[in-house]
């Protein structure tokens, strides 16, 4: 894997993925492009980038759809025409309203924009760079060494596994993202670009809370291991951080 772009890296799982990638045995990815929104809230990422030349922090808001094409050009310039091996759509939000009687229209719309619309539009913008990477490695097997899209999903997006109800904005946005991932896997299969949805587990982040059983380090180390092991048989799949298949 020569290059990876991860959205939402100022904290939590995004920052954890960057740390897990730079901790890999050599060779680590040549380009780890990590997006962040607010420099004041991204000090850990920016400090890490000063210590590792292969980390390229780029300020970008996934809700700013008018700048997607320019952002793709900026990434292309960083990659110097080599194409993008992995697009990891990590940025996401969870609304505070959970139960039906507290659910708000604005919360639903905002959550769908960030969790569903943004990953779809980001993928659309980066298909040319993913194709470029895939075409440049015709001998490589389908997977992250060639071209791969990973959409950060959640078990809460599983319809079959829903036993508690509630969480309308988060559950439905992740279910929709899973459906989009499946379509991506079919639409891009001919270009040898694969797509998977990944559940990070219940993790000790601002979103997951302190009672979660997994640390950010544990989840991200496992996700990176799963990412590197992906192959054509996983295309269109819904996987847990450790590679275990999940029910839709």
From TrEMBL:
Family membership noted in the UniProt record: Belongs to the short-chain dehydrogenases/reductases (SDR) family.
Keywords: NADP, Oxidoreductase
Superkingdom field: Eukaryota
Gene Ontology cellular component terms for the protein in this record: cytoplasm
InterPro entries cross-referenced by the UniProt entry: Fungal_SecMetab_SDRs (IPR051468), NAD(P)-bd_dom_sf (IPR036291), SDR_fam (IPR002347)
Name by which UniProt lists this protein: Short-chain dehydrogenase
Molecular-function annotations in GO: carbonyl reductase (NADPH) activity
One Pfam short name: adh_short
SUPFAM superfamilies given in the database record: NAD(P)-binding Rossmann-fold domains
Organism: Anopheles arabiensis (Mosquito)
CDD domains tied to this protein: carb_red_sniffer_like_SDR_c
